[in-house]
Amino acid sequence: MPIRIPDALPATAILEKENIFVMTEHRAMHQDIRPLRVLILNLMPTKIVTETQLMRRLSNTPLQVEIDLLRTATHASAHVSANHLESFYKTFDDVKDYRYDGMIITGAPVEKFDYEDVDYWDEYVTILDWAVDHVHSIYHICWAAQAALYHLYGVPKYLTDKKIFGVFPQRLLKSSSPLVRGFNDISYSPQSRHATCRYEDIVEHQELEVIAYSDEIGPTIVKSTNSKHFFVFGHPEYDRDTLKLEYDRDVAAGKPIEIPVNYYPDDDPEQRPVVTWRAEGQLIYSNWLNYYVYQTTPYDLTKI
């Protein structure tokens, strides 16, 4: 089944070239089913890349999904045109009177800052508090996962001695969770961050459970026991070259950056990166959308 997005969105042409079924708004309006409504709060500076990656994952399910894109009003993005934001993105004032089946909040390159020092922190908190009452299930990525754990449960973050950068093995601590149904016992997850949360701080809260853990970098997938919140510390939606582009950018800028772990064959940046996370990267989005959104959300969204 298709993903329903605006016809002119750049992701539309990219996904169609990949033979992903993208339904036009006109056709979707004439189907006698209710699509799932998913709101994406995109905090990444590379908005078009991130929105395309997420829509690629959400489109590969048997469900019709209607996407709204949300941006912060208190932070001006310098890496995307104002026309793109004006054409395809809403602000909180535009959506605050609506309800959604699901919501995805992306990461952001602000891990080194104290949460309260992030210039859009107050707006982020307002949106998250609103989402608790207006969204059936919320999926938090990377920085957003850490920020939500802090705001909702008081779980602190810790800066790491060096950047967590590469593709890391993770093992399932709760393989019975539908979120990781179909996962191998050991799977791989792309990571790119300067901070982490600790297992012992998370499990102090009975409302939280650690689903997957890496012996090298700690918790990687956490959820609330009521399945309202999902905290994914990595980036299962990443493309083959996402880490490469980040590495090349930092090398060109003269920044200290190590070769991404478990990414290039023989750790040779001249070779093509090997994708080891694609299957589980798709499964986690499909499972979240199916088991925790579609199968449990009320048909009447006003009942959320």
Automatic annotation (TrEMBL):
Keyword Acyltransferase among UniProt keywords: yes
Q: According to its UniProt record, what is one Pfam family this protein matches? A: HTS
Pathway given for this chain reads: Amino-acid biosynthesis; L-methionine biosynthesis via de novo pathway; O-acetyl-L-homoserine from L-homoserine: step 1/1
**Which EC numbers characterise this protein's activity in its record?**
2.3.1.31
Q: Where is this site: Important for acyl-CoA specificity?
A: 111
Query: Does Amino-acid biosynthesis show up as a keyword for this record?
Result: yes
The superkingdom listed in its UniProt entry is Bacteria
Which family, according to the similarity comment? Belongs to the MetA family.
> Can you say what this protein is called?
Homoserine O-acetyltransferase
Read off the lineage from the record.
Answer: Bacteria, Bacillati, Actinomycetota, Coriobacteriia, Eggerthellales
Q: Which gene encodes it?
A: metAA
